[in-house]
Records
---
Amino acid sequence: MKKIADYFITLEGRLENGGIVTELPYDDVMQLVNEPNVVIVKNIFPADALQQVIDATLAWSKQEPLRQEPDDFMSNAHKHRLHISNIQQAPQLFHDHTFENIPALQPDLQQTLLSVFGPMNRFWNRLTNNDVPLGRRAEGEPYFHPQITHYPLGGSFFGRHWHPLNPQQVGLILALNQYGKDYHSGGTGYVINDTIIETEGHQNAGDMILFRYDLPHWVSPSSFADRFSWDDPKGRWVAIIPFYNPWGIPAPSEEPQGWKTQIATADLQPEAV
Ligand SMILES: [Fe+2]
């Protein structure tokens, strides 16, 4: 365990029998997340395997038309996100690929995607003491929305926003490529007790950020010195597994802080779903 700055910790990690393990037991990791701290678990996946995930996602997106209509939260789709969200008024510009129905994909693409989403799914279950598989569940219940997000060069970003703590509890962001090589700017930032934590430059390919899900967070912009193009695959790529009921109550428009009050009164016990 290494302290990078206030509220910012890294842990060594590895992949073992298809599961993600860290240098600390899962309960201790969740305690660090809930205190709260931004935790980066280092060196989980090898970079070459993650490049395959990017390449397979790109190949799929080239033969799949961009979705123009609203999300249905049931099918595989990719979309240019370029708007200001209704409730939180968070501006955003990125390209997401949401795999809501992995069994409907070609078997080789399924296998490639599950090489990251499988371990991420099992890791989330271990951290939160749940046993929820990927895929749709009974009506009204939350389910996973595996997503590969591309932040192109030249001005992509995601403005400050937050989520309800439950049912997700802990957000997972896996870096699929390398800062300083594949992209030179942009990363996820957080605020804890009036302290800004910028992870830009601290997350290598194969590292995974863990964060308490109701922390305000954002993605800082890729440099405007580069030329922007939706068609250029350069830029930051990440994998995430949001867990929510898309027809449930959206996050409130007010930020869930003053943080100090929120954290002091928060129920830190993991909630089964
Ligand atoms: Fe978010």
---
Amino acid sequence: MADLVLHTLEWVPELPRGYVRDIRVRWALEEARLPYEVATVPFQDQSADHLAHQPFGQVPWLTDGDVSIFESGAILLYLGERSEALLPREPHRRAQAIEWLFAALNSVEMATLPQNFLEFCKDRGTPGRKFFDDFASKRLDRMEKVLSDREWIAGGAFSAADILMADVLRLVDRSDGLSKHPACRAYLERAKARPAFVKAYDDQMAHFAAADRKRAQG
Ligand SMILES: N[C@@H](CCC(=O)N[C@@H](CS)C(=O)NCC(=O)O)C(=O)O
């Protein structure tokens, strides 16, 4: 068994497929060319063991021998210690990658996720929706400026920050939320064209398709 084990859900319905956050970890592992295995927990009924590894009963988490770590951002930082493909060693570039990794989660995703939830609930045209649409737009407008003159987010080379930023933008794009932000969309397309993303995405889809087949067999 590989040292690195990615823990994810055994099965999910169609809607979240391709977007379950284990994709961030799969993508990072592929970029870093680190061998890993996948272990699963049930879609419902979180066990005490699951909660011991991920206290919110979510996925993903990663184990590395007797080390266990949850939160996709923390996992990517952890893997960054193993590979310069994820986190540069040079101090200035490393600082940029770390700040943008947090910005993806704590400044962009925190503004876009409420909008996404409201869209999912078909909450349209309400004052609450307008508030969160404006909030998300403000962040995306800033990202548009930032991404208009750079290929990758953290000063030059691709890093773990791009995995998180692109994955956050991917969910926005799913409901056409990048239509007024062409630089964000072009950045997202560059990220999605990376072979490591393609492999991670295909693997996640294949994982859930295999779970469907298993369920159908009873
Ligand atoms: N902040 C967490 C969020 C993880 C998360 O939202 N996981 C979803 C799957 S994409 C999940 O497990 N949802 C089930 C639930 O919240 O009960 C991370 O980035 O790892």
---
Amino acid sequence: MFSRRNFLVKSISSLLYLPFSGCAKAVGLSSINHEQRVNKLSDSPNFNKSTKRFQHPSGDLHDKSFSNLFDFFAEYFRRPRDKWESIGFPVRKSRKSELENFNKNVVWVGHASIMINHSNLTILTDPHFFGYASPFSFMGPKRITTVPFTIPELPPLDVVIISHNHFDHLDEQSIRQIAVHQPQVKFLVPLGLKKLLLEWGANDVIELDWWQSIKIKGATFQPTPVQHWSKRSAFDRNKTLWAGWMTQWQDFSFYFAGDSGYSNDFKEVSERLGNPDLAAIPIGAYEPREFMKSAHINPEEAVMVFNDLGAKRAIAIHWGTFKLTLEKMDEPPHRLKSALESAGISKDRFRVLQHGEFWPESLS
Ligand SMILES: [Zn+2]
């Protein structure tokens, strides 16, 4: 029965738990692979015409029953106190000169936001600079660790990459502010999200299907499949696509996993696109395990993803910023350390950076 209680829980879930098409108005220095263009969302091979929703090859594994959702929220609200929720993690505040001269480097902004510069191209992933991972500016999963810098302090950006529409990855206020301060920036989004970003003031939005590619200032950007889902309101489940993103220059490559459960997608990425020089891999938001595993990898699976990608190096993301799930806020890096030791991988190759910390060595 579709009760009011069911509706309420599902609505809260969209806020709390995270968790047509066409090319850009002005493509500028970019060229899209037109052969692969999708003119309507339903043309996508990843669109299920009977459900009218996007679908991962493994199906919609994360479609939870009312009682699953109810149990999760009951546990979430009864969770024991976690000291990190009140104090937050240390933040390395960036100096103005470091941001002004940001070159051939990468910095973890927090959660899934990474800023990287290579070959005179600066990219920012899933920007989130504000207080809540929620449709409201006063409630929902709250930021526990502050941002290392603000949007007006950002260096000139070329590209902003969006993985999907969950509130911890696609933040309206951040997009609006970036669009005001940097109107030239190109937003690359998975299919179905262009309209929303244009409404929020973005000028140049390019939406792509999995494996489509676009070249911008000498780098090729490609969204790739990940086992995840999308939702921003009570009625839009999987109406827009979700993705990881590979960016390839001639001499360097960066893979951004976004948000994902464990699947064969990462092996396929490395087989089709090669091994990334740097990957951003989620390590947090994984408990209770049975509930979360179809959508979020845990630290042990993050190490499997690192190996599947054949990544040269990786940065741990998606932990320590918002309280989304039930594991203790500081557990993901501890478990990652053990998992790396068991796999014989140096912690200097798969790093846990502080919020605002730059990669300490040269990335070339
Ligand atoms: Zn998500």
---
Amino acid sequence: MIGRDTEGTYDARDGIIKVYTPANLSDETTKRNFDQQIVHEFVHLIIQRINPDVGHLKWLDEGTAYYATGQLEEEMQSKNRYFDIPTFEQFADPDYFDKAHGAAYFYSGLMVKYITDTFGPDTLNDIIRQPEQEHMEQLLSMPLDQFFTKWHDAMLNK
Ligand SMILES: [Zn+2]
């Protein structure tokens, strides 16, 4: 699912986490990625238990998993400029993850981090519990496209 040696899935239908186990876990980076992947899938499990509707909002689902696991933090440290920040149309496209691959995880994670940094973790919690657009706009105090522009500008100035 992301550009690493480890891969995993959480399937809400059978409630089972599957993580590909690399043949050799003696390499420190491989081991850390593997551990993060397990936690990443576990975050999906928790989100699904709280509200299965989040599964329809891939940026929120994947962004929260990527952010909460520390995968985002690690990727942020390896980049000093962001070249491929999506437009609102790209980000809102249901196929964004298929089209952008790893970048989709990165920018979704940055969006979740931005919401958390700006409004606090309780607001992220509220969004996950009730992710309907109207409720989200109420929590963010503005229409989603306007909020996206604010985030986009903040990312450009990184
Ligand atoms: Zn995921």
